[in-house]
Amino acid sequence: MNALIDTHTHLYTEEFDADRELAVIRAVEAGVTRLLMPNIDDTTVEAMLKLCEAHDCCYPMIGFHPTSVDAGWKERLEKVKGYLTSSSHCFYGIGEVGVDLYWDKTFREEQMIVFEEQVKWALEYDLPLIIHCREAYPELLEVLSGYKHTALRGIFHSFTGTSEDAERLLEYESFMLGINGVVTFKKSTLPEVLKNVPLKRVVLETDSPYLAPVPYRGKRNESANLVKVAECLSVIYGVPLSEIASRTTENALKVFTNAEKSF
Question: Which InterPro entries match (predicted)?
Fold first, then answer.
């Protein structure tokens, strides 16, 4: 069996209330042996921690999602930071964070402020940054440009951009591109784009419960489905599934260096 790492899954959300434990079991049985879990905001931390404390294969991260930025963002961000600074918890990344202007541009400036604050957390605590970006590359890169030559590392989560987008993001040499079920979609341009992206810069993710790969598209996604993403990359890169597994695992460990001893 090929061991895979899901670098981005939200099995702690309400979509899994009916079968959460089974979802973890199905993932492990499918060969997805490590599940990295980005937080969403101040309302989700406890549920995430509860799941991660129950399973050695689950690794929590802490962050404040851009779509959660609202009028009360200062207090909410401070609450999330309280978990990070507490000695009670061990986190493996800062995420997921970023800028999202797809649904609403009302808090554009605030999203950029919140993002930059969390970039500083990642540097201060030597943790990888898990970046979400939707319809906001200019804003995202405006913030990141000042940190290009720092020790910052991480993942550009759910990459679905163009070859030009990929080229700009890969300039951040300690970052990987997170590839999920979108790569399997019939009209996806990702297979073509990835031909210009070295396999050494790619990690696997599901973004469960979202973005289920073919043949599960339209249904709730879960970490066990990561195998379908790996199989698709095997075809794109023309290498055996075992090589996709080993190379993407190696790539993930370059990002999550503080988790390496527990893998």
Answer: Metal_Hydrolase, TatD-like, TatD/YcfH-like
Has 55 been labeled as part of a binding site? no
Distance CA 98, CA 64 (A): 9
**Residue 65 counted as an annotated binding residue:** no
The residue length of the chain stands at: 263
d(CA 211, CA 183): 10
For the residues 160-189, what does the mean pLDDT come to?
96
For residue 109, what are its two tokens?
């400036």
Is 96 annotated as contributing to ligand binding?
A: yes
Q: Is 157 annotated as a binding residue?
A: yes
Q: 3-state DSSP call for residue 29?
A: helix
89 labelled ligand-binding: no
Query: d(Cα 198, Cα 53) in Å, to the nearest integer?
Result: 35
The confidence band for 95, taking pLDDT boundaries of 50, 70 and 90, is: very high
Q: What does the pLDDT average to over 52-69?
A: 97
Task: Give Cα separations from 164 to 70, 176, 216, 257 (angstroms).
Answer: 32, 16, 30, 29
Q: What's the pTM?
A: 0.96
Residue of 45, 47, 43, 40 whose CA lies nearest to 12: 47
Over the chain, what is the mean pLDDT? Answer: 96
CB 94 within 8 A of CB 46: no
The answer on whether 142 is annotated among ligand-binding residues is no
Please give the structure tokens belonging to residue 114. Answer: 């919140």
End-to-end CA distance of the chain: 16
What is the CATH number for 67?
3.20.20.140
Q: Which residues span the domain enclosing 68? A: 4-262
DSSP 8-state symbol, 208:
B
